[in-house]
Amino acid sequence: MAKDKKTGYEPLTSIEAISAGLGTAGYISTTQISTAVFLAHGLRKPILIEGPAGVGKTDLAASLAKWMSLPLIRLQCYEGLDEGKALYEWKYGKQLLYTQILKEKLSELLGDAKTLAASLDKLSGFEDLFFSPQFLEARPLLTAMQQSKGSVLLIDEIDKSDEAFEAFLLEVLSDYQVSVPEIGTIRADVPPLVILTSNNVRELGDALKRRCLHLHIGFPDHAREQRIVRARVEGISDTLLNQLVRFVQSVREADIKKRPSIAETVDWARTLLLLHTSTLDEAFVRDTLNVLLKHESDIAAIAPAIPKMVREATGPDARGRLASGYPDVG
Prior knowledge:
Layout: H1 15-24, H2 31-43, E1 47-50, H3 57-68, E2 72-76, H4 83-86, E3 88-90, H5 92-104, H6 106-110, H7 116-123, E4 136-138, H8 140-145, E5 152-156, H9 163-175, E6 177-180, E7 184-187, E8 193-198, H10 206-210, E9 213-216, H11 222-232, H12 238-252, H13 262-274, H14 282-292, H15 296-302, H16 306-314, H17 316-324
Parallel strand pairs: 1-8, 1-9, 2-5, 5-8
Antiparallel strand pairs: 3-4, 6-7
């Protein structure tokens, strides 16, 4: 398949092809998610993904890289993150080593230079050497720009960085280039596919949002969560899968501090299989609820409702839903 001259990537033929491709990497997409990827690929624009923690924002980037056979380059954001950690640093140790070598070879290098001006003229040729690409330590942003076949660049939890760093990103995301004063502008031959994630710790600036396609990923509905667990957990029965997903969905509807994420649903499914559970019961739920909920106050809030929630998840109505509304999705 011929590569697109503008993006450098093989063109994605359809939204359905993206959903199918992500499925081969174990990611259960939606039309909305696949459409955002299709547009980001074609328009060469980053995707800014917002939503609760644990709904698959980061996993989308990893799955894209796996499916497209591209390197995944991740920049984890935090308060105080600066250009040096995100873009590049100079290899100061290597520079010092070369300085020492230059010092030892000084008389040989100066040769027959008789005056200070002549000596400085000979040494001036070495000034640029110490600030050349061989002394440059590429960090995630620059590394992504240097990938000859492209990459997936994940800028994770951008909302945890400072506004100054957010402003610095504008050049990178607008033109897929970075400026190194001592060397010049470095442009990506093949622009990376950029995924930014945010948990809404702070409001992001309009300038950054304008440069991105916006995508919100929320908690999945029952059918999609079944498909996700089925894709990640081998050997789980239809009955147990339906019951645990119904239970998790009911927990999310409760007034608690931290609703369980998809990752925690998957962990709970694996826990139940490890304990050779074939159906939910109160004892197993109480003993393993700490896998699903990570705050003691949430566990205490859910505890009184466990009998009712287990009955609703395992009762005749649940079996009827399995037969009619939620078929085997393996």
